[in-house]
Please model this.
Amino acid sequence: MSEEPAFRVRDLAVSYGSQVALKDVTLDIEPRKIIAIIGPSGCGKSTLIRCFNRMNDLIPGTRVQGQVLYHGQDIYANDVDPVTVRRNVGMVFQRPNPFPKSIKENVAYGARINGYKGNIDELVERSLRGAALWDEVKDNLNRSALALSGGQQQRLCIARAIAVQPDTILMDEPASALDPVATSKIEDLMQELKERYTIIIVTHNMQQAARVSDKAAFLYTEVNEAGTARWGVLVEYDDTSRIFTNPRDKRTDDYISGRFG
Amino acid sequence: MPVGMSAGTPAGAAAGAPAGAAAGNPLLMRSTSRARVVKDVAARVAMWLAALIVLVPVILILYYVAAKGLPTMDWEFLTQPTPYSMRLRGGGFVNGLIGTLLMVVLAAVVSIPLGLLGAIYLVEYGKKGLLAQVIRFFSDVMTGVPSVFVGLFVYTAMVIPFGFGVVMGAASLAIIMLPIVVRSSEEMLKLVPRELKEASYALGAGHWHTISRVVLPAAAPGLTTGTMLAVARAAGETAPLLLTALSAQEIVTRLVGEATASLPVLIYYGARNPFPAGQERAWAGALELLLLVLVFTLLARVASSRNRLWQ
Ligand SMILES: Nc1ncnc2c1ncn2[C@@H]1O[C@H](COP(=O)(O)OP(=O)(O)O)[C@@H](O)[C@H]1O
Ligand SMILES: [Mg+2]
Model:
């Protein structure tokens, strides 16, 4: 590996109250790559991705153990403000969630609350261009974001995220609520974005993971012997080509070839 | 609404179409059985009837107040204070209008921000904690307390030491409004989708930014409606004002230590006196109060829909 990883995750475990949701996750994420997190429903993909920007802090009773080092700094250390983390690590959600504001105000939101000193109009244009949405909305910047189609809304959410100038973007199943055309636009966009950003994407869709990602992490649910508790573990983390052609673990093989999940 | 759903699957379209459209397709016909159609029609008729029955008293009240009040409601009524004797014709309720406006606005200025902050505390900070539960409980109790008790409380606490006045009347109205504002605002704030708040946090917004720039704007229309309900309730209160502001024939000149007229109290005095002139003024006053509440509500609606972009 030539470059310092963007993230190093060490022995990460997450529990909701007394229920462990995720255990023993250790992986390194290289910058400016697309990393896919795959696995069956409920195995902890969202739980894992929400550790990278401390979104799990918002759910009362959530406990995170282990380390998440972002450029060498533990983001769960006591003196780290989650707000600072989130300004560097943006996020796009499963369902497009634009604010009930104009297109422009959606994009400008992060900049405004962060006290951005530069020219807001330029930032809005740059971000919308970055999210491949500018040509479709440039004449209607003051229209409600809610009037856009689902795919446009999702690209608006990406524009809104990159306007804060993060270096990593997390995407939790960003295309699962979209039609195939909108999905392929998002996938194309991801290829452009990876020139400048590290992208971590959760996806349900194996073809999508195979198409877009450089590396893939396969999570799977383990159950205790009594069958009373279940938690997710990281089964395998490798180059996407290897995961899809020659996985080391039988569970990975079974999952990607559709034998379960 | 979810985008993918708008297209409507063939099955969904057929279920909404008349039964005849599905003829020939046994699969679709089975789902629209006779009993179901009958039940559907019956439920529809029942709901329409219920809605009509609710509307009847409202329309009757509006009609009656307008019919009885309009003949007396002229420029003089709107601009002149009450004559010294109920027997005299002429004059009007401007003393009551000014008193009501002063007291309601003063009460609103105190209770709306306070109630809103309280609701924000309940939803965003206190949540299910002990203090929040205590506040909720006492708000509910306060909503149920008869308003004359509030009047008696303010009478003892403020009128005995300082005399009657606008401030005392406003205090009793504020006490009545506060729990309504808190509880209705809490319900509205709870309706703001979690996804919107998460979007804000994910962009590096802190708690207060998220509340002030996302939660409050998104909830604004609902907050306005609840708040206006409280204002309308306060504008119509009579009993507490009898104990705190009393009434007067002149336009008020001081906020403390001077008995002050209000529309509901003038209506009350006018309605229970034996002279037709006084009664007619009471009808016109009732119409004026109704219009006042209507104007308040409309203004608030317009103001809150101005900045919102929910489609
Ligand atoms: N807020 C929460 N509170 C309690 N349990 C949760 C919460 N969110 C997720 N879980 C549980 O954690 C496990 C992993 O969930 P999640 O990370 O959402 O899975 P995935 O995204 O892979 O479908 C599931 O068993 C789920 O029920
Ligand atoms: Mg998920």
User: Anything to note?
Assistant: The two ends of chain A are 33 Å apart (CA to CA).
